[in-house]
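Hi there,

I know you've been waiting on this one. I reran it after we fixed the sequence typo, so this is the corrected version. Both the input and the resulting structure follow.
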Amino acid sequence: MSVTQIDRSRIESLVRQAIQSGNLVGATSPSPTSAIVDPPGWIDGKPNLRVSISARHVHLTDEHVEVLFGSGVKLEPEKDLYQDGFYAAKQTVMVVGPRRRMLPNVRVLGPTRGASQVELAFTDSISLGIDAPVRHSGKIEGTPGCVLVGPAGSVQLQQGVIRAARHVHMNFADAEHFGVSNGDMMQLKITSNDCSMVFEDVLVRADAAAKLEVHIDTDEGNACNLDAASKVELTKSGCKCKG
């Protein structure tokens, strides 16, 4: 029996073809490099700071939603907020203070919470005749109450009316970038024509999913003319680093 001789160059050529076509027995193609995913809200590998005006609004419990809007009613999302999972609902309520002073059509934000809460700016609280203290969200012990009126009924809140303290939402990658932790305080500088301001005592609220966003109220936003701001800077309190 004759044996066909194949020269070395021919063998090398066949091997190269087999590797390129993936037909070599046992050969595996190289795994693609895993895509690098930015943390929530980041752009091009960097935190993307947003400063938002948090207008007056109401948070409700499931029970109070039904009392105000009817048995079996749930909050209906109308517009998603910047933070994932949070929304402005279609429903609004009237907030009534002492001596029948009232604010109509105050937006309800969802999802529902374990305790109902009304967040106002200072001028709102003056209009209602309520001495609302500055508090961080959820810290409502010892705060004034009010009456909420909806199309199906009313709720007397014994407490829960606050002026929301300024704060910044961020995820843990943001916190590491700025060198801060949940509960720390930061500084926000707003640069705008003839209205530049520095806000101290910006509370860090860090969790895994949040996007970098500072919340100030309408009075604060108007004072610094936020809509016309040319620059916003968030820094760790006591340091001159910028972000």
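Quick highlight: The chain is about 15% helix and 35% strand.

Best,
R. S.
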